[in-house]
Amino acid sequence: MGYAKNWEMDSESSNSWQSLERVENPEYPRSVAFIISNEFCERFNYYGMRAILVLYLTHKLGYNEETSTVLFHIFTMLVYIFPLLGALIADGWLGKYKTILYLSVVYSLGALIVAIGAVPMNAMPVKLVTIVGLLFIAVGTGGIKPCVAAFGGDQFQLPEQSLELAKFFSLFYFAINAGSMISTTVTPILRADVHCFGDNDCYSLAFGVPAVLMVFSMLIFVAGRGRYRMQPPAGNMIFGVSQCITNAYKGWRQNRREKPMPHFLDYATPVVGQQMVDETKCLTKILLLYLPFPVFWALSDQQGSRWTFQATHMNGNIWGGYEIKPDQMQVINPLLILAFIPLFDYAIYPLLARVGVRRPLQKLTIGLLLASLGFFLSAVVEMRLEQLEPTALPDSPRMAHLRLYNGMPCRYDFSGEFTGESGKLTGKSVRRQSIEPLAMWSNLTLHVPHFKEYEFEAQSQSSKCGNIAGTIRLQPGKSVSYFLARDALLEFPDGLDSVQNVNSAPLIRTLVNTPLDEGPMLLKTPAPGLPGIPLDSANLSAIHQVPLGVGELNINGKRAASFETRNGGLYSLLVQGNAHDGYKYNMLEVVAPTSLSILWQLPQIVIMTAAEIMFSVTGLEFSFTQAPISMKAVLQACWLLSVAVGNMIVVVIAELKFVGSQSAEFALFAALMLINLLIFLLLARNYKYTNATTTTEQQQQQQQQQQRQQMEEEFLKEVGLQNIIDKMEWKKRESGGQIDGIDGEGSYRNAAFDHGLDPLDAQASHSS
């Protein structure tokens, strides 16, 4: 037959035609193995990259926490905007297979660009490279997001394989969460525990492994091409809804006085048909309830930004010396989701039903309330962290910090205007102070309105050491330190402005009072295999970042001192002596390490995950049972768009800086959610549920009729019976039927041919 050759000319069209053929006992499609494997690798890449992104922006690109939060949420916003573009391309132009393939190439390029940008190379514009890579990733992952699951569903013949389709989606969901859990566990380990290019971390490897998996996922997807069943592009209902609203507006302007309609959308009926109008009405009724949804996503998506930063200020050491890295806390969410879904289905929801909570909108309300509670808890944790935060630098521009380190083997007594209890340099308070060998004396409450110099004299309590005299220089808003060594007062930059107090590598300063001809000196770090840090005798007070754990200082190849560091601390290691008599040392804690356990984040994460189950899962269920079948794709697009708007809310609040502290910002989001909850209650109080069973049966019958009609028309066109189609169109116009809808053929009108001839009847009439 002539049409067979035409279908064979294009492989995708050929597969599309094959997918229309009915098989009595269809086999389970082996092609879904390629799709599930592809999804696992893609999700591994996305969640692994996302887990370490904010830390990379702060620690490597130099952005502060505010800017990093803004960039993170702009990226997430784009990830949830581009699915609209991907759906339109797949449904209206390329089809799902080509859309997934082409955008996967863009996705892989973006992942590789970010990984290469993390390699320290001179003259590379790292910030620009990273932004470009993230944009490519947003286009790629967002574009394929609405296509992959739907493409997997296309491999099944319905209704014969309904059970197999349900199992496929279970495996598909498992692949998503497995990829997320593994990547958010492994990627932070690659970031922190592997050392490359002379750094104490390896972001290039942490980004590179997921990028390679993304390339591998693309190859897996292409490998299954010969097995896929591909549907041709069938048009996207988003265009249909927009045309319905546009035509309603035109009709309203023209006929609102002469022919008033009970509903605004009724004005579009003559053009798009009554069914399209009814379904758009149903859609708008559901979308009205969507208005408060973005605020939930504004809170939920901060688990990858603000809550990660909160974790960096906490102590990750738990039982047995194991350390939880701050970006690894994100793995708890997918773990809890997998555990909570059966728990809620078989325990929580039956209990709620006993107290009258059965309907989806009631569960959505509880989800919003839980999200608010989760952020109130995060505000409490943040307030505790703010109380524990050390005073590394003066908190007032008229204050100064002074620290004196004694590197001599003797105790010294000294006095000066800077030693008074009041801290005010008035010249009246000259209390005598003392400093023990290898110890530190400090005054962190000095009132210094302007630069001043003060004479310093320290008297030794032993004949082994001479007196030391010098000048103390204090500047407002600054922290200054002095080292008593070699019978002199040595000033050095404090460097406390570099202290981040984060749950990462500690900082250590070595203050060594040894003969000048002794050396070399090597600071051996706790990390096995990492080369030691050579110390410059001319700059012994420099601050060095070292891994967590026990290390040592070697002089002339022999151990002179050992030390142990903890998360977020700044330490000064004082060493005194010589090779002949031996060395003495003392480790001083200048800035206290983080003490609040990272496990205090668990309550807020558990509550936020419960909120996600109550809100996200129930919201999707509600939307898909209440919406017409033809509108499900539009509803999915609006759902994703609400996530994008939620991330934009975070960006706006972070940029406008409504409050002065992070704990206050968390409380602001919690209060905003409570207000949002009240708005949702007002919108939901008058909602009337649709009978899902009856509506679904009617919609399935209508959809099957439309699909049958489309198949018949395609067949007639292929065998050269276009003139019959033309006569049908002419008869429609003659009988008053409207066919000049969207694209001139009513391609998005569900009832465009409600009153027309059946193509097979027309063919029989023509034959007779």
Summarize, please.
With 768 residues, this protein is an alpha+beta fold.
Protein model, in words:
- The strands form four sheets. Strands 4-1-7-8 form a four-stranded mixed β-sheet, with no helix packed on it.
- It is elongated, with a radius of gyration of 34 Å.
- By secondary structure, the chain is an alpha+beta fold.
- Strand 7 and strand 8 form a beta hairpin.
- Helix 15 packs antiparallel against helix 18.
Which key features would you list for this structure?
768 residues, alpha+beta, 4-stranded mixed beta sheet, 4-stranded antiparallel beta sheet, elongated, disordered N terminus, disordered C terminus
Assembly classification: single chain
Low-confidence stretches: 1-20, 421-429, 692-696, 715-768
End-to-end gap: 22 Å
Average pLDDT reading: 81
Question: How are the elements arranged and paired?
Answer:
Layout: H1 2-8, H2 11-20, H3 32-59, H4 65-94, H5 96-117, H6 126-153, H7 162-193, H8 203-223, H9 237-255, H10 269-272, H11 274-289, H12 293-300, H13 306-312, H14 332-354, H15 360-388, E1 399-406, E2 412-415, E3 432-435, E4 440-447, E5 452-460, E6 468-474, E7 479-485, E8 488-493, E9 507-513, E10 521-524, E11 533-535, E12 543-545, E13 549-555, E14 558-565, E15 570-578, E16 582-591, H16 602-626, H17 632-656, H18 662-684, H19 692-718, H20 722-734, H21 759-767
Parallel strand pairs: 1-7, 9-15
Antiparallel strand pairs: 1-4, 2-3, 2-5, 5-6, 7-8, 9-12, 10-11, 10-13, 13-14, 15-16
Helix pairs in contact: 3-4, 3-6, 3-7, 3-8, 4-5, 4-6, 4-17, 5-6, 5-8, 7-8, 7-14, 12-17, 12-18, 14-16, 15-16, 15-18
